[in-house]
Amino acid sequence: MSSFLLHVAVQPSSVGPPMRAARYLRRGPQLPRADFQLRPVPSGFAPQEQEYQQALLLVVALAGLGLGLSLIFIAVYLIRFCCCRPPEPPGAKSPPPGGGCVTWSCIAALLVGCTGIGIGFYGNSETSDGVSQLSSALRHANHTLTAIDHLVLEMVERLDEAVRTELTTLEEVLTQRTELVAATRGARRQAEAVAQQLQGLAFWQGVPLSPVQVAEDVSFVEEYRAMNNESCLSHGGRTNKKCMNEILSVRWWLAYVLLLLLELLVCLFTLLGLAKQSRWLVIVMTVMSLLVLVLSWGSMGLEAATAVGLSDFCSSPDTYILNLTREETGLGSDILNYYFLCNQAVSNPFQQRLTLSQRALANIHSQLQGLEREAVPQFPSAQKPLLSLEETLNVTEGNFHQLVALLHCRGLHKDYGAALRGLCEDALEGLLYLLLFSLLSAGALATALCSLPRAWALFPPRNPSASCSGSHLSEPFLHARLEPVPHLRSFPSCRRRPH
Amino acid sequence: MSSFLLHVAVQPSSVGPPMRAARYLRRGPQLPRADFQLRPVPSGFAPQEQEYQQALLLVVALAGLGLGLSLIFIAVYLIRFCCCRPPEPPGAKSPPPGGGCVTWSCIAALLVGCTGIGIGFYGNSETSDGVSQLSSALRHANHTLTAIDHLVLEMVERLDEAVRTELTTLEEVLTQRTELVAATRGARRQAEAVAQQLQGLAFWQGVPLSPVQVAEDVSFVEEYRAMNNESCLSHGGRTNKKCMNEILSVRWWLAYVLLLLLELLVCLFTLLGLAKQSRWLVIVMTVMSLLVLVLSWGSMGLEAATAVGLSDFCSSPDTYILNLTREETGLGSDILNYYFLCNQAVSNPFQQRLTLSQRALANIHSQLQGLEREAVPQFPSAQKPLLSLEETLNVTEGNFHQLVALLHCRGLHKDYGAALRGLCEDALEGLLYLLLFSLLSAGALATALCSLPRAWALFPPRNPSASCSGSHLSEPFLHARLEPVPHLRSFPSCRRRPH
User: Fold this and answer.
1) Contact between chains at A111 and B111 (C-beta distance less than 8 A)
2) Closest Cα of chain B to A450: distance in Å?
3) In a domain, B297, yes or no
4) I need a labelling partner for A32 at 20 to 30 A (CA). Which of A20, A329, B392, B467 fits?
């Protein structure tokens, strides 16, 4: 239900500012931060600063503290139950009161655990969705940026080719009439000017940062890929580090799915053990529950730290990303502001170059028109290079319109918005669901760990006083071969008892 | 787990063809279709044809058949259990064998039902996500289309204004020199030509179809909105039909959430009834289970028909949408193909107009430059209108670049791809999950309906032979005040029994 309401509230806003909704998700975990000396730390996202890292580590440490406390509580509860309970009168047949309640509370705890697992799968899927959206937006942005570079390169080459061949031929043909040669030279100058202006538009050329590299780094979190070990082994240096990251990330992803499946199996087998009254199975599942409890607290720590860091990042992503991109790419503020803000207040930094190129192209066109009118009647051999030049001009004008569309901030800004939405809406929401899963499963497993030993002590024993000594561990299915114990009640019961 | 794997497989592909993945989702339900006379029907999406509608209704009817069969099976099973079982020896204390198994199978069925509910919530959320993505893409497309219209209107008005004021002033100032007046008249002609070319670019002007209207119609499925009854009552005719649709859609949405919650409550209260051995609660929950079983089969029929229709639509959406849009908008094939296909093979239908406008703008610029050079030294009063004209020209050129970017197919085609992905990946996936929920809950509830009467017959009775007569219905909590029955076993047990 909560997931549904959340989804209705998180209405994606693809126009205008990248995100209007889900602010409560990002403003939510604005808890006070502190470093190891418990001094307050500013909550701005600064992953490179040591005190911020310490604040995140402190969040992880809090989960460790929770684990320790819950282990101590379970140990105290069980020691008190096993060793300090009042001695039973010998030969007493009835188990301690509340036996049915123990089983039912165990079942309830396992149900809560199963609910948590469902939430965990949902959260994992949401996180994966968000990361996949981020990676797809980055890939699309990379596609746009490389398309700009290729288009500029293509146009410049085409113009250079026209200058070298057709315009030179034309000059040679028209060499008798100086005013026509002057017009041809004018067209050549304009074409060279256009090529020069266009080269300034390929702003991403030579920039060391590749969004597709970032997308690849990110998508390792998201999906399992068959690891190409040969490529990892055959390269050295930085590639090896990348391979290491890849292996670690894939293992992290796998670990999450395995944790969820492990907890599901523990819940189901514990229920089976309770149903079949198999003491052996219940004891094994108690030990497994302890293991999963530790893992749940561990994952809770990691998720909490990631969620805190991500919410800090998402509370004002623009400034951080703008500064980071400026450092990484060395691009000017005007270009970055244009693409990251993309509103009426920021003017197109390529406007001047585009207008100049456009005018130069129009001038070439009118000069070619003039040449066709003046020269072709006198020099029929000029017609072929002129037609070829007009064809080149038409193609260049078509490409120019495409370049204008690619350079406009709408496309890249939409990718930026989609990437932020993926990270700060879906991925953060998924992380919060994963956190809820960890909380629920930690609570459910702690309850189950308290109830299970009491429940197995209530199984029909050979020697009830030895219920804590584990004397039946070696014969788990023995009671299945016993004579059926005559029973009057077939259900665990949780009713009030008369006093 | 399956959701996760599915998500890894459904990698969104925002570049190139709108969807490469999730084909198996759409090709999946390509079952043979038949109409009411069971003649085969082509599986192409044709919602307006009667035989296709019949094929979908037949899918709904299949769910009705399933409901009937499962009701008959449950009735036969229960009648056989109640009336045909061997007479118990009077005074027998032990319930029939397998009593614990009945309870545990009931618990297992309810667990499966709870799993189904989780899947249902996930599917509902996915469907809502998909519809929200579709509606957001439609809104974005509408934003682009209206932005084109507004931009064209603004540019035309600006040029008209310049022609009416500055160019007229300039002509009056330069009236003594005819060649300058001719140049001014040339600029005026060019400006009028640009305005005329631009007006042809506002291709969506006067089109009766509004994507935002479609988005609003669609988003009623997705989210609950406070219904503005006054606006519904104060208008007549078509608006009333819209209000009716709105109310129906919101009710459909609400019904889904209520069904999921109802089933969750039935599962939990049945478990509570079993735990407290409350015969009254279990009987009420049995009746409720019957109701929810009917509702589950009903929702399954609707989901199956919707999924079949949607998968037919999604197997080749382009042709259908292209034809529908052509009929609804009356736009030419060249424009629709350009936006729906958006690849190298389809040329920009606005290329000619854009190039002509661009050349005319460049010509105006060179004429103004010439005028400034020639006229200003002789007529200083010409400087003010010339500067104003150049300012207008600069703004128009900036707007022209924005118009080129808006008219390019990238943006609108990306919206189209996002809308299709929302409908054919997320919404269809969510529908399949909802179908899985309905199947699981129908199976679980049928099992529970078979087990529950047997389980309540095993509750500690006042008069065991009257277990089918309902004689305890009026005193639901009576046994809570009874003396506790001495019991040796506190758990339901499902072990093998010795022969």
Assistant:
1) yes
2) 18
3) yes
4) A20
CA distance B356 to B197: 8
The enclosing H or E element of A123 equals helix A99-162
Q: Which of B7, B121, B351 is closest, CB to CB, to A125?
A: B7
Q: Which of A257, A493, A494 is nearest residue B4 as measured by Cβ atoms?
A: A257
Task: Identify the CA nearest to B229 among candidates B239, B214, B220, B237.
Answer: B239
In the numeric block, which tokens belong to residue B340?
A: 């729906």
Nearest to B488 among A261, A481, A487 (CB): A487
Cα–Cα nearest to A283, from A266, A295, A300: A266
Q: B222, A8: Cβ pair inside 8 Å?
A: yes
Kindly tell me if the per-residue pLDDT of A1 is higher than 60.
no
A95 within some domain: no
How many Cβ atoms sit within 10 Å of the Cβ of residue A246? 17
Contact A15 B133 (CB under 8 A): no
Q: Do A99 and B124 touch (CB under 8 A)?
A: no
B212 falls in which pLDDT band (50, 70, 90)? confident
Q: Is there a domain that residue A98 lies in?
A: no
Residues in chain B: 499
- Considering only CB atoms, which chain B residues are within 8 Å of A277? 491, 493, 495
Sole residue written with tokens 């959260």: A123
Does the distance separating the beta carbons of A355 and B394 come in below 8 Å?
A: yes
A496 min Cα distance to partner chain B (Å): 7
pLDDT band at A102 (very low <50, low <70, confident <90, very high): confident
Report yes or no: A454 and A102 within 8 Å, Cβ to Cβ. Answer: yes
Stretch among A74-78, A189-193, B103-107, B284-288 having the lowest mean pLDDT: B103-107
Task: Give the Cα-Cα-Cα angle A75, A77, A80 (nearest 5 degrees).
Answer: 105
What number of C-beta contacts closer than 8 Å exist between A and B? 253
Q: Is the pTM of this model over 0.90?
A: no
Q: Which of A434, A424, A415, A453 is nearest to A74 (CA)?
A: A453
The C-alpha of B32 sits at a distance from chain A's nearest C-alpha, in angstroms, of: 33
- Chain A residue with CA closest to B94: the answer is A488
ipTM score assigned to the predicted complex: 0.74
Which SS3 state, helix, strand or coil, does residue B310 take? helix
**Cβ pair A490:B99 closer than 8 A:** yes
Is B312 part of any domain?
yes
How does residue B26 score in pLDDT terms, banded at 50, 70 and 90? Answer: very low
Q: What percent of chain B has pLDDT over 90?
A: 27
Look up residue A494 and give its amino acid. Answer: C
Range of the domain at A451: 114-222+249-457
Distance from CA of B193 to the nearest CA of A (A): 15
Overall number of domains in chain B: 1
Give the residue among A392, A283, A118 at the shortest CA–CA distance from B437.
A118
Asked whether the predicted pLDDT for residue A174 surpasses 80, the reply is: yes
Report whether pLDDT(B464) > 50.
no
Is residue B12 very low, low, confident or very high in pLDDT (cuts 50, 70, 90)? very low
Give the mutation candidate from B351, B401, B434, B454 for the A interface (greatest A CB count, under 10 A): B401
